[in-house]
Amino acid sequence: MNIIVIGNGFDLAHGLPTKYTDFLEFVKVLNNVLEERNKDYDCIDMCNINVQIKTLIKENITQQIEQWKSLLNDNFWIEYFLQNDMHGKENWIDFESEISDLIQSIHMDMYEKRSLTSMYEEIDGIFINKFLENYLWKDNVDRKLNIYKDIKDKLYDDLNRLIKALEIYLYQYVNKINCEKKLPDIQEIIAEKEICKILSFNYTNTIERVYIDKSNMDIDFIHGKANKDLEIEKNNMVLGIDEFLPAEKQNINVEFVEFKKFYQRIYKETGCKYKNWVDEIKSEHSLYVKKIAKANFLYDEAMICKNCKKHNLYIFGHSLDVTDGDILRDLILNDNVSTTIFYHNKENMGKQITNLVKVVGENELIRRTGGSTRTIKFKLQKNLI
Questions:
Q1: CA distance 281 to 336
Q2: Containing domain of residue 132, as a range?
Q3: Is 385 part of a structural domain of the chain?
Q4: Are 196 and 341 members of one domain?
Q5: Are 150 and 73 part of one and the same domain?
Q6: How many CA atoms lie within 13 A of 336 on its CB side?
Q7: How far apart (Å, rounded) are the C-alpha atoms in residues 104 and 16?
Q8: First to last CA, the chain
Q9: What is the pLDDT of residues 296-325, one digit of tens each?
C-alpha cells in the first residue's frame, strides 16, 4: 500500500493563497466592498491579494453581496481575528490556538467562578467587553445563569459562519486559480506506485485537479472538503480545537464539545478511510509475526522490521504538529511502514523533527531514523516544474 499525506504546505507549494492570513486579507476586501457605497469597487484593485481572485471577486460580487453580509456582519470571530495581532503567525494551527485560548478561558471561568471581567481581560479586555455589550448584556441582565450558554451559542454560530465563508473562498476562488506547475516528487510517486491512497488535511481539490484521475482515486479528506452547497448545514469542513481537558474531565465537562475536532469529524461525517488502511497494515504485520513465531524462527525486532513486506508513507507539506498526532502515530508507528517526509529547506526540516519528537517521542524517533530499525527518512523536495 502507498499512502500520500498532504498538508497546507502542499497547496502553498503550488502558489495558492491558503494561509489563514490570505483568507483574512480576502475578508478585508469584502468588508470594504460591503461598506463602499459606489458600485465601482475601487478597493478591489487596490488590495494586495491574488490577481485571479481579484477578477473573480469583480465577476461574482454583485450576486454574492447578501450572502457575504449574512456571513461576515457582526461575526465575532471575523472581527476578533481582524483586530488581533497575529504578527509572525501564519499557520492554521495558530488560528485554531487562538480559538482554543478563548474557549478555555470561558470554560475555566465557568468552573472556577472567576469574575467575567477578569476572564475577558486575559484574552482581550477592550474588544471582548465590546462584544459582551453589543451582543449579550443588553438581553441577559436578568438571566445571568444563562450567560455562558448564550456566549457559547454566539461563538459557535459565528464559527460556523466563518467556516462557511472560508468554504466559499476556497471553492469559488482558490480552486479556480490555475496551477501551471507541478511537484515532480508527487508526480513520480503516483506514476511509480500506480493507485495511491491520499490522506488530505486540506479542504481544497488541488490533489485531484492537478495530479489524479478521479476514476483511480482513493482519497480521505479527513477535515472535510470545500464544496458548492450554499447551506451552512451542509458544510463538512472541520475547523476546531483539540482536547484541552485532563482525561478525568473529558467525559464530564462537555459544554464546549462542539468546538472540538473529534466532535466535528463525527457530526459532519467526514469519514476516516485512513483507519481502514491502518487496520490492514497492522493486520498484515501481525500475521507475519505470528507466521515467524509458528515456524520457530528466532527473528529479533530488527529482522522482522527488515523482512516484513513494506508499505510506503509519503508526507508532503505537513508540519507534523502534535494537533494531528493521533493520526500521524497511527500511520508512522508501524514497523512495516517506510515513511518519507519531504521538506523544502533545512529550517523546515528542523521544525518537522521538533514536532515529530512531540508526536512519537524522542526514543522512538531515534530508533526509527537510524540503524537496522530505520523506517523514517527526510528528503529535500524537488522544485516545481
A1: 7
A2: 18-178+241-270
A3: no
A4: yes
A5: yes
A6: 20
A7: 32
A8: 27
A9: 555 666 666 666 778 999 999 999 988 888
How do residues 73-112 score in pLDDT, each as one tens digit? 989 899 888 887 665 566 788 888 888 888 887 777 666 6
139 within some domain: yes
Q: Which triple of cell numbers denotes residue 23? A: 483568507
Tell me the chain's radius of gyration from C-alpha atoms: 23
Host H or E run for residue 2 = strand 2-6
The Cβ of residue 371 has, within 10 Å, a number of other Cβ atoms equal to 10
Asked if 21 contacts 86 with a C-beta cutoff of 8 angstroms, the reply is yes
DSSP 265-327: HHHTT---HHHHHHHHHHHHHHHHHHHHHHTT----HHHHHHHSPPEEEEEES----GGGHHH
